[in-house]
Amino acid sequence: MQCLFECQNIDFHYPQGPLLFNRFNWQLFDGDRLGLIGGNGAGKTTLLHLLMGLLVPQSGSIVAFGKPRAAPQDFTEVRQKAGLLFQDPDDMLFCPTVIEDVAFGPLNQGMDRREAKAHSLKVLEQLNLAHLADRVTHKLSGGEKRLVSLAAVLSMNPEVLLLDEPTTGLDVKAKQRFLDVVETLPQTLVLISHESDVIEQLTDVTFDLAING
Amino acid sequence: MQNLPLDASPKENQGLSLWIDGIDPRLSLLAVVIHAAVISSLNALDILSGLVFLSLVLCFLTYPFIPLLKRIMAMDGFLIFVLATLPLSVPPEKASATLWEGHFFGQALAFSETGLWMAVTIVLKANAILLFLTLMLGQVSVHKLCHALIGIKCPEKLVFLLALCLRYLSVIKQQFYRMKTAMMLRGFQLAFRIQSLKMLGFLIGMVLVRSLNRSERIYQSMQCRGFVDRLAFLPDFYWRPSDSLIAFLFIMFEVSLLGVAHHAVFI
């Protein structure tokens, strides 16, 4: 089985903060569906940000998709292959309309406008969201925002999905709809959640950062 | 950010508002720019008053009365200062043009007729431009406006900046009100006291800090989706034959406006 992400002896702390990771080792393999758990401040979101190159560890190395990644430009390829869903969908939906937001990634991947639009519409259709395409992002409901930001990540055809508390704040119906959509996705998955039913439905194995971090 | 800050929601199912809504937003935007330029070059008070009256009538036909009136009052509130101060600061052209003379804290002051007419001209110009702007763009949503700006070849970076500002203004506003409510629930009262002002300072400071944090997160999420320097807009426009007709009539109107105004100057 191919190893997609590997943390080797990672040390990390925020400026003036306590040591969050101390010689931390961790691996993610192709096909894994992993639930990342741990209390507040255990470093769950930080780990995902380290994997995507948004934060830089003080020491140790990150190996992603078979290559060590250190410099910011090393992570360009990682960001093409791994999709991170942020905790707050308002951070992800910055374009005026839904279709533009979903097409943002594909356009950055080099598709031309027409191609990117057609591809984004296809992704929205797959998630049964095609009716939202021309809606203004800020007028969507909480559940719709979450699903549209998932579509925005999926439109880049990632091999790995990193979902950061995707169901927090959703009502029962919106949450179930989100879970049903994610359950059918074939990608390797890392999921942060405090909800045991979510972890149970979507993941095969859990990793507790409070114990292992 | 659903609508422009200058917007008053249009009357529903109204012939005129539907008709204006059907115009290609690029045309509306260009029309406003051209109209503003033409009006700036006019100085004839009768023509300016006529234009204000015409825009006012059309605006009242398109938008509900009270919100529109509030909007006009908000705009004219600033212009009152122009009306009040300009006649004092502009020297009269001839001695007979002085309407009032007096002393204020030992300083000689004169209220000149020249300044008064200048102020009236400015007020009329500002009203004519802003009423036309409200008429043409008041019901254009922000994303359509951004697309229209791209459509008339505004730099994409500037348009993106505008879109981001408008997108996050409401988010920051919500955050501000959430924190303010939390303060109110804990007994905070806004008053002219050191403690109260200090708390207000904390509130504004926190809004700034949180906005900064949010902007960092937005940039991170853009980076995660491959952002380098290319920005994405996917505008859809449908230029209809009626738009060509409107554009032609509008240009004729503006040209005749200039013609009449220049003629008036020569008389």
Describe the protein's architecture and organization.
The complex is a heterodimer of chains A (213) and B (267). With 213 residues, chain A is an alpha/beta fold. Chain A has a single domain (3-212), classed as Rossmann fold, CATH 3.40.50. Helices cover 38% and strands 25% of the residues of chain A. In chain A, helix 4 (98-108) crosses helix 5 and helix 4 runs parallel beside helix 6. Chain B has 267 residues and is mainly α. Chain B has helices spanning 15-21, 25-41, 45-62, 65-89, 113-137, 142-151, 156-185, 194-224, 241-266; strands at residues 98-104, 107-112. In chain B, strand 1 (98-104) and strand 2 (107-112) form a beta hairpin. The interface between A and B is medium-sized, with 35 and 29 residues.
What is the multimeric organization of the chains shown? heterodimer
What characterizes the major β-sheet of chain A?
A: 5 strands, parallel
The CATH topology of chain A is given as: Rossmann fold
Rounded mean pLDDT of chain A is 92
CATH architecture of chain A: 3-Layer(aba) Sandwich
Number of helices of chain A: 9
Count the beta strands of chain A: 9
What's the average pLDDT of chain B? 83
Could you tell me the radius of gyration of chain B in angstroms? Answer: 24 Å
% residues in beta strands of chain A: 25-35%
Flag low-confidence runs of chain B: 1-8
Count of separate DSSP helical elements of chain B: 9
